[in-house]
Amino acid sequence: MLMAHSVLRKVTAMVKQSQFFSVIVDGTQDCARQEQQSIRICLVDEDLQPREMFVSLCATTSTTGQAIASLILDVLLCLDLPATNLRGQTFDGAANMSGVYSGAQAVIQTEYPLATFVHCGSQCTNLVAQDACEASPVIRDAIAVIHELGVFFQQSGKAKTALINSIAVSHPGNSVEGIRPLCPTRWTLRVKAIKTTLGHLQTVIEVLAELSETEYGDRATRARGLLKQLSCGATVLAPHMALSVFRPLEELTVAFQGRAQTILGMMEAVDKTVMLLQACRSEEAFASTFTETSKQVTDLELEEISLPRTRSVSRRIDHGTVHQLSTLHSQPRRFIEQNSSNYWTQPSIS
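The structure assignment produced for this chain is given below.
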């Protein structure tokens, strides 16, 4: 405790020397399901170098914007840091943090207008990766299969041991890593999990085939279902396509999280990432990915990659409505044509 207070005193002295500072706040649940708020201070030292320092980890019973804003101001008060020198706030995109009306940033900015809010760059990158994945049903479903694969090997000790032993035999001398479930929040961290699955795909398929025959009940059914999914060439192609997008975004996230990162450096990293993503949209890039995946599918003797089947439209649906509309539109014209002669030959009432 004495060492902690000594470190905090040095941190606060450094912040007071630089005068102005910003706060970074992020919340998560610990293993006891208790909500914890991590608070860090950002400043620029006398050498014009950005510094980021952790100052507090506070438990909170409420996650409303007002409660989190009060918690942040209380921490600054305990550290003897005047909130009038607060010049920046960095949170994620949750409504209770970045909401324009009742979010924590809005509550603080109402009292301290110079505390400008900036959406967390890493969280923005995470949202881009998530939206890009959800936009393609093929990639979305393939990523879900890899996640279920990690859950299956994580829940079954026998399956996990069989997989690790098989990987150790097929790749001797290398560090053995099992298949783990995908992180539900940090999408850019999925690159390692996807690469591990694709790198050991043959071993995974062999282990699943063995478990589907030797296990009983639910585990055998799940193993057989995962085996069927992984035996499809499209399921193998989709993760390769996702990696071409996730890799640049992961590098961008690492650049954003650098302690000595500057605004100019982050803008350059964003421009480079945009160039890499635009290059992925060319036919040459897709042809390279398709060729690499097709070779892997052929070597593993999996189901060939084929285009999704287009649903044929029923003839009744395709032509019935148009025919009915044409009939309805022709009825007034037919009535006029049939009765036009009678109309003109009838004597006038007057």
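Interim note for the steering committee: Strands lie at 21-29, 35-44, 50-59, 86-91, 116-119. The radius of gyration is 31 Å.
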